[in-house]
Structure formats: structure tokens, C-alpha cells
Amino acid sequence: MDYQVFSTCADRFMRYVKIDTQADPYSSSSPSTEKQLDLSRLLLNELLAAGIGAEITAQGYVYAHLEATVENPGPGIFFCAHVDTAPDCSGTNVKPILHTNYSGNEFMLPDDKSIIISPVEFPELTGKLGEDIITASGLTLLGADDKAGVTAIMEAALFMNSHPEIGRPAVDILFTTDEEIGRGVNHFNPNLMKSKYGYTLDGGELGSIEDETFSADGCSIRITGVATHPGYAKEKMQNAIKIVSHIISSLPTTKDSPESTEGRSGFIHPTKIESSLETGTIDLIIRDFNTQNLKYYHELLQGICESSIKAFPGSSFEIEFKEQYRNMNEIIQNHPYVCSYAIEAMQSLGIEPKKSLIRGGTDGSRLSFMGFPCPNLFAGEHGIHSKKEWVSVQDMQKAAAVIVKTSELWSKHRS
């Protein structure tokens, strides 16, 4: 397939990233920020203008559907991406810059010259000579996570809609909100989908296909100390701030922590602390590829709290664990053809498939456990959640081509 059939890819992507869709983890609304609806509505209108049936929900999810173009098609499939960007770095007033015909240089971003995107830090750039690279200007993230995926899906959907001669089963499109804060499919409605299997487009390196994620739990620790006037506190006060600090300082640092692990190793990670003299809370996340190992981390945290509170006998703690998501491979391994079709599609397009795992989660994790096996495919995003984020236009075009080819292969599936 000639990737130039997706010639509007760069313009489309740059139009999307200019829309601020940053999610807010401290908001209880859905979507967590109204501005996410700005992009969702734009996508809806673009789909409808192309004659593709689509609708939007109150939470900003966009569902669209392409009918099958073959007789007796196999099961329908879907492609999913999220419109929101991470709260880790500003997404306001994104100014995308297109660097054509990349020559191997580093990028010094114009609005903050201390922000440099270098092949030394990103060796993937060495394979992008001659390609067109898009960066932000140095003051914000770019939003390739996941507007690169949104762009690839839109390009593929519009192409397939105008080329019914290419065989495909029924194809659903799903755009979600609030994925970056772990709520991406909280309001997913399976009744609006005709498909059984799918793919998220939320990956990085060209050719990557990911069918494993962490299994994840959240943890909240609540401390109750003893408050007194500090002038009369001798042998009475038990400062919750100090108890919280004791627990935090007791967490592992040389193992079982993000900064000390890689590959399949899991960790405990504190994400938020709030404390006053009398009360305090610690929020943590727990991650491991083996779901059974989460129990080890539960017991480790329980032991740290019990040990810490001994020094404060008049104080107490409560600890609560909450399931967040599970390793999608527990489901996908029972449906191997979901990955094999995507791998075959890449190979037929001259793209080397790279099976890998995600040290994180995607909408596909929870969708898989909802009965929709859903690995993650590349969209070309790099340096995510940072001012050094970048994407290759050609990678997005190739991701769109993989969507089209994968759909074609699924039209021949029977189960």
C-alpha cells in the first residue's frame, strides 16, 4: 500500500494537537475536563461529514461504524484511541512544528532552547532519516499520546469508507476520554459496538505490538495521629505528618520501586501525600506483570505500616487496596489470532513486527476483561508526557495502513 494515500495525516494531527484535551485526575466529572469534548465533537463531525455513522455520549466517547464489504464476514473488529492528554505536562496552547526531511540532527525547541530532542536520548531517531518529524515548541507536551492514534484511526476510517472494494468485516471506531487518569472505559457501552475483538492504537516504536500490561492495584493509607498544642505536647502529640514521613521513608528504593526496576519487575509507587497534624493520607499504585505477585506488595505495605505505627502507640492507620486493571495477556493468550492478524498485516506492508510488553496499562487492558480481547499497536509516539514528545508522520501513515490491512485480513476469519 502506498502510504501517501494518507497524505492528510500531518495536517490532521497538527489540527488535533492544538486542541487542549488535558485530563484532570482531581475532577469527579466525566469527562474530567469539558475541553476534551472539543476534540470529541470535532471527530464526530468529521465522521458524519464523510457519511460514516457516528454518535457521541455525554462522557465524550465517540462511537462510529463501518459496515462489512464482504459476504459472510467474520466477526467485527474495532480500533480505539483516547482523545485526552496526560496531566503530567501542560497541554495548553500546543504549537506543533513540522520538521521535514529529517537529517539526523538534534531539535532545539524554539520556545525553550533548554529543551533538546536528541538522537542520543532517543536512538529511534536514527532510523527516521528523510522522514517528517513533528515536535512541540518547548513549552508543552505535543499530545502524540494519543492523538497519533486518533489520527491513524481517522485516516484509515476515511480511506476504508471511500474504498468499499477493499474487503473488511464490520469495523467499529471508538474514541475515549480520560484514559490518562485511568478512567478511559468507565462508561464504555458494549451495546454501541458490533465487534468482538479490537486494537488500541496507543503505542510507540514502529512495528510494536503489545499484548501484555501490568496488573494494577491502587492503595490508600489513612493515618490518624494525636493533635495537641505544640507548647504542651510533651509525651502527648503524635504528628501524622511524621508518621506519613516514616512510612514513605520505609518504602523500598533499591528494589520494588519504579526507579530501580525494568522489564517484568513490579513496584510500589507513592503518587500523592496529604497531611496535617492530626490526619494524613498516602496514595500509592502497585504494579506487576504477574497478578499473583500483587499480594506480596499488599503484605509489604501492610508490614511497613504496622512497623511504622509502633513508634506512635496512640495513633492508628487504615489501609485499603483497590483493583485497577489486570494484565490483558490473561485474556489475549486465549485468542492468539488477534495478534497474529496484526503481525501478518505488518509483515505484508514491509514492517518488522516487534512483540513487546507495556510497563503501564491501556484501555485495552480493561476492554480485554470486558470480553473484547484488545492488544495495543504502534502509533509512533515517543517521549510521551513530556516537552520532548515527538512523532514521525510516516509512522502514523504506516499505522493507518496496518489498520486497513488488518481489517482486510479479518474479513477472511471464521470462528
Summary tags:
4-stranded antiparallel sheet; 27% helix; 18 strands; 24% strand; Aminopeptidase; 415 residues; alpha+beta; Alpha-Beta Plaits; 8-stranded mixed sheet
Explain what this protein looks like in three dimensions.
The radius of gyration is 23 Å and the shape is globular. An eight-stranded mixed beta sheet has the order 1-2-8-3-9-16-10-15, sandwiched between helices. A four-stranded antiparallel beta sheet has the order 4-7-18-17. It has a four-stranded antiparallel beta sheet with strand order 12-13-11-14, covered by helices on one side. It has two domains: 3-213 and 327-410, Zn peptidases (Aminopeptidase, 3-Layer(aba) Sandwich); 215-325, 2-Layer Sandwich (Alpha-Beta Plaits). By secondary structure, the chain is of the alpha+beta class. Strand 5 (107-108) and strand 6 form a beta hairpin. It has helices at residues 9-17, 36-49, 144-162, 240-250, 294-309, 329-332, 337-348, 363-369, 393-410; strands spanning 53-56, 62-66, 76-82, 97-99, 107-108, 116-117, 133-135, 171-176, 195-203, 208-213, 215-224, 267-275, 279-288, 316-325, 354-358, 376-378, 381-382, 390-392. The two termini are 28 Å apart. The model has no long low-confidence stretch (mean pLDDT 96).
Helix and strand string, N-terminal first?
A: HHEEEEEEEHEEEEHEEHEHHEHEEEH
Reported by name, the CATH topology of the largest domain is: Aminopeptidase
**From the 3D coordinates, which CATH architecture of the largest domain would you assign?**
3-Layer(aba) Sandwich
Structural class: alpha+beta
Kindly provide the name of the CATH class of the largest domain.
Alpha Beta
Rg = 23 Å
User: What's the story with the biggest beta sheet?
Assistant: 8 strands, mixed
Classify the beta-strand content into a percent band. 15-25%
Overall 3D shape = globular
Task: List unreliable stretches of 5+ residues.
Answer: none
**Helical stretch count?**
9
Fraction of residues in helices? 25-40%
Into how many domains do the coordinates divide?
A: 2
DSSP strand count:
18
User: Separation of termini?
Assistant: 28 Å
The strand order across the widest sheet is: 1-2-8-3-9-16-10-15
pLDDT averaged residue by residue: 96
What would CATH call the homologous superfamily of the largest domain?
Zn peptidases
